[in-house]
Amino acid sequence: MSLKDRISEAAAAIQPHLTHKPTIALILGSGLGGIAESINEEFSIDFESIPYVKAAGAPCHAGRFVFGESGGQQLACMQGRLHAYEGNTPEEIAFPLQLLHALGAKRLIVTNAAGGINLSFAVGDIMLITDHINLTGATPLTLDEDNGLTIFPDMSHVYSSSLQKLAFQAAERCGLQLEQGVYLGVRGPSFETPAEVRAFRTLGADAVGMSTIFEVLAAASLGMDVLGLSLITNMAAGIFDQPITSEEVLETSMVAAVRIETLLREIVSCL
After folding, report:
1. What pLDDT shows up at residue 242?
2. Confidence band for 48, pLDDT divided at 50, 70 and 90
3. Which of 94, 103, 41 is nearest to 68 (CA)?
4. Parallel, antiparallel or unpaired: strands 73-79 and 24-28
5. How far is CA 7 from the centre of its chain?
6. Contact at 8 Å (CB) between 161 and 232?
7. For a tag site, which of 7, 126, 133, 208 has the least CB within 10 Å?
8. What are the domain boundaries of the chain?
9. pLDDT digits (tens, 9 = 90+) for 191-224
10. Cα separation of 217 and 214, whole Å?
11. Contact 232, 123 (CB under 8 A)
12. Distance, CA of 227 to chain centre
């Protein structure tokens, strides 16, 4: 079955339950899934209940689509996401976004939990993603005509400058400090070594994480406007002389979720 047919079959499991087309896709990263609870929900469904969508397996990733309204906008929210370290292929990770695009989403707001590489950052900071470095060693974009994604998309301005400006204005209105920088994506699931962090800093990275890259590549191929936000949940290895744990990442995410929710609601209301 072609990808087009698979997307159509997946969309058929959702469309009858929606009275409005979503215009914005929102992907919530580790520990941030609770933000979906603030949406005026119209319909929700688990990933695995939709044909061809894999179940989420990472801790604190509900693996659920939530459709509804917030700030006068129709949202399609992914409460959790798929990761390569769970054994998913780049194509499987990109499929949910392709599905949301087919349902009507033209903009993507993607969030993640990340380790801080920039020495001026602190745990709990929110970083606006201005660019990324793909060190996953993979991509959902291939020469396969059936993958539904245009190869060789222009990546010069994949993170929309107009959406970045809007995010800074929204943060100011909310009284929030918004950092900015380059996100570096790796496959995981191990945290980075101090030597790797020093190398990443030399490459120009400000934060590092294990997600986001494939979804943004797919969004660029589909011509979607992208806004990216990283929550700095820990400082990367070698910056502090203390161990890094997944529990720390999730705890910080949950504590800071209220601030990110406030910012996202303000951003969405202005789109």
Report:
1. 66
2. very high
3. 41
4. parallel
5. 20
6. no
7. 133
8. 3-269
9. 889 999 999 999 999 999 999 999 999 999 999 9
10. 5
11. yes
12. 9
